[in-house]
Amino acid sequence: MITDKRNYVYWLKFRKDTGPLLRRFLFAASGLFFAAACLHLTPLLTKSGEIDFIFFTVDLGISVLFLLEYILKNKVPLIIRVLTLIGTAIFISVLSFLRSGLLGTGEISLAFIIITFFVFLPPIPSLVSAILISIVPAIFGICVYLSVLFFPEELGMRNQSPTEWFFKSVSLFIFSILSGFLIQRLRAKLIKNIVYLKESRAKILKSNQQIDKLAYFDSLTQLPNRYLFERSIQNRISLGQSEAYVLLINIKGIKVINALHGIGFGDQILTLIGNILKQYTLERPDIMVASLGGDEFILWIQNSSRTRIEDAIVKFDLNNNQTLTPDRLGHRLQYRVSGIHFPTEANDLDEVIRKLSIAMNVAREESIRHLVWFEPEMEKKIEREQKLKNQLEKAIENSEFRIAYQEKVDIKTQTVVGLEALARWNVLEFGDISPEEFIPIITKSDLIVPFGKNIFQKVVSQIPKLLESYGHQIKISINISPIFFLYPNFNEYVIEYLKKQSVDPNILIFEITEDVFIDEIETIQKIVSSLRSNGISVSLDDFGKGYSSLHYMQKIQFDELKIDKSFLDDIAISDRNFLLLESICHLADSLGLKTIAEGIEREEQIIRLKKTSCHIVQGYIYSKPIILFE
């Protein structure tokens, strides 16, 4: 049953696919039989012989039959068409047999109609119709046998023999079976090939659609990707929409979510954010949103202003959406936005995205939470940073950095008790570069270890001259980067180099900031213990900036505590700050630590400091960093 149903479906598909060709065949066949019918009328023109009206009727009838099938293709039910074909064929055949007996148009017409049935009708109706048509000669044979029908003598004795008529019926029956089997097999293969080709075409179309989807849409968020975004924007520009604001949105919390819940959960969050942005812009044809991949999205906004966009960004909060609540995510989603005006500040989409990225870097570095508009100075800063970065490796390799020393003064004795070594760098194109500028570039360029070694070695090489100038009682402080401090075998490297240069380790103080302790407190504890056991002092620098310094002081034995400038600026005018300073000094005294006040610039601060146990001062009030030997 399933096979029959499938075959019938194949036949329907075959009729649908080959219908136009078969209808043209019907029309042509109708025309040919009509021409044949017209030939029987030639005696009217030649005025010789007689018109054979029976043959004329047969040919004309077949012509009309095919023409009706052509015209009434889908307007008459199938059963009526089949019965009409069978009845008409029998009628035409009877006329033909009555006129010519066993031979002539009747036999040819029946064979032609049988083949037509198998071509135009479904398998089962075509077979039943062909068998019914094949019975017609047998009916003539029965009529002859019962003496109901007599043929003229000129048609021959064969026409008067029932056996001949039965033989003719059997022949047509066999012809029906064989021709039907052959046509059905050929048609089945043709249908399967057609179906296969159509299915292949459908698969190719589906594959092309999938390829287009991959080519034009982000697979995760289903938003347009950068390629489709650029094409769409170019189309808008070509249609005259040439002015717009472009925003770049960066989601902050995704890395934390990936760490807490896995990358799959992070992908779900990005998908939800994509849906929110899509809904946010769905009813705004003047806004287009796209994904740049990862945690970045880009928006093209027409018919707006900076003020309206800034207000919308402030009001827009991802966490207001019920699906992105901090309780559900385990982390509050935050985002940064950079913006630019097109085409005033950039007239090319590549340039737009590049400048948006520059503004986004500013937002990241300065921890700006919401919108940062691109400014030309940002690009100049990036260009300057890139030029400096290109020269840094060469500067480290050629030891182009110089060392400046700032004195540490005992405010009770007014004597210099120490020096802090500070790196200085001069570039021919830009002049003197501040450490606040080149140190972050060195860190981002992964050059901090070779830089640290270079500075350390240069300071060590200058220690003999420093002792000669300031006396053997002074100590030299060197700032050590957290990355360099945690460098494998840092202790061994320092001790061996000091031995090689014959420098007493007790002269050195390594100043480290508390950011070195993040997730590495046990390692730092071992390093500090090893350094102190070899005579090198360790100072906790920039105390007062962070939030966990007391915890580190509890875990690690330091020698000095350097109080940050920002903590000391107001001690002369703020009693509260002064009381905090006194408390810190008492705490340091109880732990056996020296306290150093850095960044002192005014006499009023000195007066206040003299009332505490902190009597070593470093600042412009006594000396600026000076390059002594180069």
How is this fold's topology laid out?
Blueprint: H1 2-39, H2 42-46, H3 53-71, H4 78-100, H5 105-120, H6 123-145, H7 162-216, H8 226-238, E1 244-251, H9 254-261, H10 263-282, E2 287-291, E3 296-301, H11 306-315, H12 326-329, E4 335-342, H13 349-365, E5 371-373, H14 376-397, E6 402-410, E7 415-427, E8 431-433, H15 435-444, H16 448-470, E9 475-479, H17 482-485, H18 490-500, E10 508-513, H19 521-533, E11 537-543, H20 549-555, E12 560-563, H21 565-568, H22 575-590, E13 594-598, H23 603-609, E14 616-618, E15 626-627
Parallel strand pairs: 4-5, 7-9, 9-10, 10-11, 11-12, 12-13, 13-14
Antiparallel strand pairs: 1-3, 1-4, 2-3, 6-7, 6-14, 6-15, 7-8
Helix pairs in contact: 1-3, 1-7, 3-4, 4-5, 4-6, 5-6, 5-7, 6-7, 9-10, 14-15
Write a concise keyword list for the protein shown above.
630 residues; 58% helix; five-stranded mixed sheet; Rev_trsase/Diguanyl_cyclase; cyclic-guanylate-specific phosphodiesterase activity; TIM Barrel; 23 helices; single chain; alpha/beta; EAL_dom
